[in-house]
Specification:
- By secondary structure, the chain is an alpha+beta fold.
- The protein has 4 helices and 8 strands.
- It has a 4-stranded antiparallel beta sheet. Strands 2-7-4-5 form a 4-stranded antiparallel beta sheet, with no helix packed on it.
- The radius of gyration is 17 Å and the shape is globular.
- The structure holds 2-oxoglutaric acid and fe (ii) ion.
- Residues 25, 39, 44, 51, 61, 99, 101, 111, 113 line the site of 2-oxoglutaric acid.
């Protein structure tokens, strides 16, 4: 965030109000002839995600291009990507990556993901430094737990633009 000009105190403050969730995932290999979907297309709801994989020949993680026209393979060993809250905090300067896991090999794939997320009851919003005429405020301040709940239920569950649906100011 420092590279986006956000002052140091804010970063310290942010780190103090962040918790991390670590998740281990196992994807069984598939038959040579079939292409299995290991995890359907989604965006992560946290701030940043770091993923590490075992040494499978085919990483399988794919990220959708910004124009939505096709999927590109992501670096198979270590991936760090921005999630919904990164998009909010940087006021749209980065966008949350739509991604999925496809399985095309017989090997078992293991991954571990580190997901940083807010550990605060304060409303989440972009700092003033991120708002200017070129980047007018994009999102209403919101409560993370309520947003998370929205993405787990009903229409929010499969909504790849869930963040915009939930709190965009540009509807
Ligand atoms: O297993 C992976 O490579 C990615 C998993 C993922 O996207 C997630 O857990 O949100
Ligand atoms: Fe993900």
């Amino acid at each position: 965030m420092e590279s986006f000009g956000i002052y140091e105190n804010y970063i310290d403050e942010h780190l103090k109000s962040t918790k991390c969730l670590m998740r281990m995932m196992k994807y069984n290999g598939v038959d040579e002839t079939e292409e299995g979907l290991g995890m359907e297309a989604h965006t992560d709801r946290n701030v940043l995600t770091i993923v590490c994989l075992n040494d499978v020949a085919d990483g399988g993680l794919e990220v959708k291009t910004k124009d939505g026209s096709h999927w590109i393979e992501a670096n198979p060993l270590k991936i760090l990507h921005s999630s919904s809250l990164g998009e909010v905090l940087l006021n749209g300067r980065v966008q949350s990556a739509v991604h999925r896991v496809v399985r095309m090999g017989t090997e078992t794939r293991y991954s571990s993901g580190l997901f940083s997320m807010p550990n605060t009851e304060d409303l989440i919003s972009a700092p003033e430094e991120m708002v200017d005429p070129e980047y007018p405020r994009l999102f209403n301040p919101f409560d993370f737990e309520a947003y998370y709940k929205f993405t787990c239920e009903g229409s929010g569950r499969r909504d790849l633009s869930g963040l915009k649906t939930y709190c965009s100011l540009l509807k």
